[in-house]
Design goal:
By secondary structure, this protein is of the alpha/beta class. The protein has nine helices and six strands. The protein has a six-stranded parallel beta sheet, sandwiched between helices. Strand 1 (15-21), helix 1 (28-40) and strand 2 form a beta-alpha-beta unit. Helix 2 (65-76) runs antiparallel to helix 9.
Length: 214
């Protein structure tokens, strides 16, 4: 595992997964899904990219960018093929995925990119900044949260999405881990034990820093 900042100077064409999000906090579900995609897509690496501090977030339970990055680094430590990038922290301005992809294409020229997003983001994907240009660059990967009905709804939406080549759309049939970061924060805030849903090092970090207790 490394922080992704160096240019790829090798001649090989890489298959790179991109997994962005708040990761507030990163939990076992994130890692389980990442591992699934890493294996089933035959990726050479999977890069976790935590979002920077969004200006509209006012919740006191939104951990600082530094803490969320540190938790990710702890979570993927010693996991072969998993990396963490601070690329969106270092960029000034809003953290648009399109701009992140532009930077990654410079770091990893001639590579194939697989963008992993949640079901909720799929249904608003056409609101993303320059989403058609994103679709020209990546294979879009997602998974249904609940049942076959949602899966069919996602397929229908994807087919209607302007600019999406269905040959570059991957809808997983893997069952999604049934807990969210917000639910974990609520457990911690209520004084409960969320250790079963978190990597042990992440859970210890949360306790040490006193995160999510307010």
């Amino acid at each position: 595992m490394q922080n992704t900042t160096d240019r790829n100077t090798g001649a090989d064409k890489l298959k790179i997964g991109i997994y962005g999000g708040a990761f507030n906090p990163v939990h076992n579900g994130h890692l389980e899904l990442a591992g699934y995609y890493y294996d089933v897509l035959g990726l050479d690496k999977l890069i976790f990219i935590p979002t920077a501090d969004p200006p509209h977030k006012s919740s006191e339970n939104f951990a600082r960018a530094e803490d969320r990055l540190n938790m990710l680094l702890l979570a993927v430590k010693d996991k072969e093929g998993f990396e963490v990038s601070d690329i969106e922290y270092r960029r000034e301005g809003k953290s648009y995925t399109y701009l992140t992809l532009c930077e990654l294409k410079e770091l990893y020229p001639d590579s194939e990119f697989y963008l992993i997003i949640g079901a909720d983001q799929l249904f608003i994907f056409d609101s993303w900044y320059r989403y058609r240009d994103i679709l020209d660059t990546v294979t879009l990967c997602t998974a249904a949260r609940d049942n076959e009905a949602e899966r069919e709804k996602m397929l229908s939406y994807a087919k209607s999405l302007d600019g999406l080549d269905m040959q570059r759309f991957f809808l997983s049939d893997k069952k999604v881990y049934r807990i969210s970061s917000s639910e974990i924060r609520e457990i911690i805030k209520a004084g409960g034990d969320a250790s079963a849903h978190l990597p042990s090092a992440v859970y210890e970090y949360i306790k040490e820093k006193g995160l999510y207790i307010a």
